[in-house]
Structure to design on (421 residues):
């Protein structure tokens, strides 16, 4: 059995290869901006509350536009939607670079531009997810989704590390991060611009945008396997994502050393990266619902161990195991969503998937901080991990069709003819 990530989709489809490479470079560029904005806000205000407000600024437009954006994606050419979103995003990144280099030290433009980027991402990210099933055969979908998770894990590790070097470099600083993000969009444009047209499926969206959103949610409700995948992910991120507790636990356990605090987040990323690199067996997993339930239980157990671990090595190991389980969870959820969603609903269901994945994490961080303030950081992290494990048991009992779901083995289809170039 192949252990390393399966790169067959990259070999089989030139269009998918360009899309993947462009998305990888652009995602790393985006990580530069998401590193720089909190740092710039803190430099200007010296207020942790001002930095925390960035999460709310990101969350509100994502929740407000995510589902409506899904209806738009299903109604028009998806390629054009993505190109339009990228034009808006590159303008926002260029504006951030200009503000930094011109020395316009105001906080409110940073909030406004982050809000714009979050709104654009709420449409752009689900739209991009609809492209993969259209570019590769069904039997290569698990491998492609694992490769896309590899992109994400690489970005969250390499992006902040490289951004720190850029900020410290003479004549670059924060503006250099924004400028490099702006330049990285060229790779993203290259990956999307040469794709064939991706028109809406016949009859995909009828009536108003609101009725289209309602129809998409009704499809999810009628599909217990898709609904189970979403509920399992929300269970994981709402109860067991204690990143807001990291500074307090680091201060109590390891003296508040910032280098140790950095290792907490890095360990999650490294665990996820290792899991993505060793994703070869993913294509052989047919019980994807059960795999999600097991992975979320491991995720919860990892954070429960993190809560009570006293040594640094055990703390980091527990976080790495949680990160590895997260990659499995996200990959399996993606396979279920892309496999069971008809093309006419793909934009709306992927939009719901995006809102669930990103919104659940933001709410989970808020929940962990609130419980930690009322009790203690350790109790919050421990109880969250235990509740995540208990939640998987409840979902497994309430949705037996999700627990028992077995994917049909797709018949290998000929890959699309490689595009020239």
């Amino acid at each position: 059995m192949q252990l390393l990530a399966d790169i067959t989709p990259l070999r089989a489809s030139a269009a998918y290869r360009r899309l993947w490479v462009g998305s990888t470079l652009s995602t790393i560029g985006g990580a530069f901006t998401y590193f720089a904005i909190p740092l710039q806000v803190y430099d200007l205000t010296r207020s942790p509350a001002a930095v925390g407000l960035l999460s709310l600024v990101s969350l509100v437009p994502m929740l407000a536009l995510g589902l409506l954006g899904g209806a738009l994606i299903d109604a028009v050419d998806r390629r054009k939607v993505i190109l339009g979103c990228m034009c808006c995003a590159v303008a926002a990144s260029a504006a951030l670079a200009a503000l930094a280099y011109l020395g316009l030290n105001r906080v409110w433009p940073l909030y406004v531009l982050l809000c714009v980027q979050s709104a654009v991402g709420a449409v752009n990210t689900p739209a991009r997810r609809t492209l993969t099933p259209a570019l590769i055969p069904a039997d290569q979908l698990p491998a492609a989704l694992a490769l896309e998770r590899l992109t994400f894990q690489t970005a969250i590790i390499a992006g902040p590390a490289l951004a720190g070097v850029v900020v410290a470099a003479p004549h670059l600083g924060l503006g250099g991060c924004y400028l490099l993000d702006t330049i990285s969009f060229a790779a993203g444009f290259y990956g999307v611009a040469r794709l064939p047209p991706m028109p809406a499926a016949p009859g995909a969206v009828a009536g108003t945008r609101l009725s289209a959103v309602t129809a998409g949610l009704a499809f999810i409700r009628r599909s217990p396997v898709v609904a189970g995948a979403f509920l399992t992910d929300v269970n994981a991120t709402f109860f067991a994502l204690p990143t807001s507790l990291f500074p307090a636990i680091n201060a109590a356990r390891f003296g508040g050393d910032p280098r140790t605090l950095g290792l907490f987040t890095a360990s999650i990323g490294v665990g996820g990266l290792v899991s993505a690199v060793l994703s070869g067996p993913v294509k052989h997993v047919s019980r994807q619902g059960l795999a999600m339930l097991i992975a979320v239980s491991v995720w919860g157990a990892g954070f429960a161990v993190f809560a009570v671990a006293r040594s640094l090595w055990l703390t980091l190991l527990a976080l790495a195991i949680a990160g590895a389980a997260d990659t499995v969870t996200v990959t399996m959820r993606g396979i279920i969503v892309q496999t069971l969603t008809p093309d006419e609903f793909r934009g709306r269901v992927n939009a719901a998937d995006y809102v669930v994945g990103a919104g659940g994490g933001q709410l989970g961080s808020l929940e962990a901080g609130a419980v930690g303030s009322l009790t203690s950081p350790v109790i919050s992290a421990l109880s969250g991990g235990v509740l995540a494990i208990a939640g998987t048991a409840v979902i497994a009992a309430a949705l037996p069709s999700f627990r028992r779901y077995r994917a049909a083995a797709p018949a290998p289809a000929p890959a699309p003819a490689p595009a020239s170039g």
Summary: The domain at 207-407 is CATH 1.20.1250.20 (Growth Hormone; Chain: A;). The chain has 17 helices and no strands.
